[in-house]
Sequence to fold (974 residues):
Amino acid sequence: MTEPHRPTTDRPSNERPPGDRVTAASHTSEMAELWRRVEQLEREQRDAEALYLSLVETVPLYVFRKDTDGKITFGNKLYCDSLSRSLDELIGLRDVELFPKKQAEKYRQDDLRVMRTGEMFHDIEEHTNADGATSYVEVFKTPVRDGAGRIVGVQGMYRDITAQKGAEAALNDSQARYNSLMESLPLSVWSKDLDGRFTFANRLFCENLDCSLEALVGKTDFDYFPDDLAEKYRADDRRVAESGAVLEDVEEFLNAEGHQSYVQVLKAPVFDAQGHVVGTQGMAWDVTARRQAEVAMERAKQAAEDANRAKSQFLANMSHEIRTPLNGVIGMTDLIMATRLTADQREHLSLVQESAESLLEVINDILDFSKIEAGKLDLDNLPFAVRDSIGDAMRLLSVRAHNKGLELAYRIPPEVPIALRGDAGRLRQVLLNLVGNAIKFTVEGEVVVVVELIEQGDDAVELQFTVRDTGIGIEPDKQQTIFEAFEQADGSTTRQYGGTGLGLAVSARLVELMGGEIGVESAPGQGSTFHFTARFGTADPSEAAVVPLDAEELRGLKVLIVDDNSTNRLILEEMVHGWEMRPQSVESGPAALAAMWTALEAHDPYRLVLCDGNMPTMDGYSLARRINDTRDFERPVVIMLTSGGMVDQGALRDELCLAACLIKPVKQSDLFDAVATAMAGDDPTRSEATVHEETEHSTTVGRRILLAEDSVVNQKLAVGLLERRGHVVRVANNGKETLELFEREPFDVILMDVQMPEMDGLEATAAIRAKEAISGRHMPIIAMTAHAMQGDRERCLAAGMDDYLAKPIRAEGLFAAIEAAVGCHEDEEAENDEARSACGNEAAACPADDSTTAGEMHDPVIDWIEALDRVGDDEELLRDVVDAFLQESPALLDNVRQAIDLDDTKTLQRAAHTLKTSFGHFGAIAAAELARELESLGSEGRTDGAAPLYGRLQERAGVVLDALKRYFDQGIKT
Ligand code: ADP
Fold:
């Protein structure tokens, strides 16, 4: 930087010229004054100069001055640096010496124009730098004037605005892009300030409002929309501005053509650079088509759901309509089968019964299948005792298996929890189907069910069920398709084996609902293994009413298991191991005797023998006899495991001193009860388990039953079934009559139809429960409904009923429900009333009235040993006697019935006496006892109470006559 030029000391115009006439003294003082002023001016000029310099050197601008010839007279440091020269070097140089010619010429022209016009010049110059990049310079030029105002040069300043230019360009670019986006979007876009005035809108928005952007800006919604709408928009905008959140809405309006239209609107706040909300912006698009599609879909879904509901309702109704007459067919056939029939009639009726049963099965399968397909089948989630549940299912199928000579066994290892939570009924259904199939498709060998624990969580388990048979097997290419509806492995199997092909399809879907998978492994001729998994919750044993099987006195007990079937041996071993007994297994009678001898010699004899009744060479009964006959060792307790048939032979059981006879496959709890009772030294021939098993085949104690049912056919059927069973039934045709009878007469249980005229079953139940709230008693009520819909059961239970039976009513289910309901009721009563003796479920301990002694009912149908004994073991003679009785008994029974009808007590006494004696001949004690009771009524001159007794006699006589007929026709003693 050069020293600033010393300013010229031109005299100021107000100074006097030196040639003025003045005195010397005054001259001297004037001169001094003058000099002082000159110096002051010089000082002021220097100050101004310094000020100017400090200004031009501190501003971030390039500053220069030129004279009229274009020579540089000054340049600030920035300027000098930009030209890489010192100020001294630059002074006197022209632009042409510093810049390219064209550029220098432009500068000169600009300078000349400024000097000519005296006006300020402003320009933005574009330069291409040495590296080829473009830079921008903003230039201001003004004329330099002397003291007289004459233009003596030009001064300029400029700055580099390349960066600013770049930012501007970028902004322009983005603005252009934004604009093109806004304009091309198929959306209306707008923005408003905080007062709701439009600041921007795209073309579509303007078109919709039929105005230009210029006209729109500054206006509000109130200028374009009806007040109520504008109010809403304003309120929305305010909400967005206040909350800072995005608002989404679907607005509904009538378009210009008057059609319902919908727009989807998004509103968001607009922020400035400091993050303050300065307005709102929005976008909207037409969603009329989408909305219409949604509405159409919603309608279609609704229609489909309605249709589904209708379908499921139709199915329920249809199944009801079919089941009701079928109920009649099955029930009436049952009743007729219990009467005396010719062989042909019986055979034809069995066909009717079988056909009706299989038709019912098909209807049930179709109903289940449709319900599952319609997503209407919900599973229960209730606690259940898994061993009892599976054991009961196996028990149901045992007769079928044994009739075919098949061994049926099941194994549930100890690690499977005793109480689970889930749908026990549906699990049973799947097992019944698989095991039923296994029995159906197996000619000889065994069917074995194994349950395994796959996974145990804190409150859930996964189990695997395997059903293995030794049957005909399935071709590999059919092993998948059989799980589909109406598929069978072989079309011809339908003819040979029957079935609809729905069972596995239903099972597969049920398994899926239980969170599991189903599959099969099989080879033709080598049997099949079906397996499925299922998930269950765990439950507390007390919830599922299971008592852990544990008895101190059984621990260490030495037990011998005798069974020719290795699977059975394994299962029995596992069961008794669980009770900490010491089992040993052998596969035959002789091996058992040998083992007993060995144990005796080792001074550790067996105290219990679990023996299969049906074994080759020496069967279980022969073994038991041998054990009895041997006097050399202390007789162990013997429990016989049988396939039925022989069970009824009480005398044989007594003769062989069997502690119990249990039907295979034996339930763990039954075996435990039998063993515990036998080992506790109770009467070994009357274990609780034995009683249970017998009661399944015989009549239970007579109950007083109120049947609320409006259908005459159902009334007939139910009354028939119940009276045959020895119950006393009163019929009410509707809810009102039910209430009247309930108040008038004592009953043990009410069977309540749900749909009845006047007052339905739910109302009647509610009324009964209301009355009981005062009396504190509780009448067991069992619902009977033909509806098979989900929720029916819950409705009935919620109305205060104790149990639920789906129609058609099946004898076993009905009887079991009655006993369960009355049993529980009695349990409760017994608890409340110490005076009554404990009765539990053992029917024998609970006579319902004086005329009935249930003990008689547990005796076998016919005691063949007794019968033969009476004829001196002469089979021929026995046949003759049987023949005579078969001829005579129908008339005798008829006489009894007529005598009761006519109140003819003499005839009653006589005919009943004859019957009693005849039944006694065959050891048919139950029937004989009933005849005796009728006889004594007659002798007392009474017929009251005779009718139900006769009903029971008739039923029992039917069974006895059947057995006698089988003996007479085929020589079979059952
Ligand atoms: P259904 O037994 O009523 O015909 P399912 O769906 O229960 O219907 O069974 C379908 C088919 O699968 C049967 O018809 C049979 O061909 C085959 N099947 C099922 N279980 C077995 C089995 N244990 N052994 C051989 N074939 C079987």
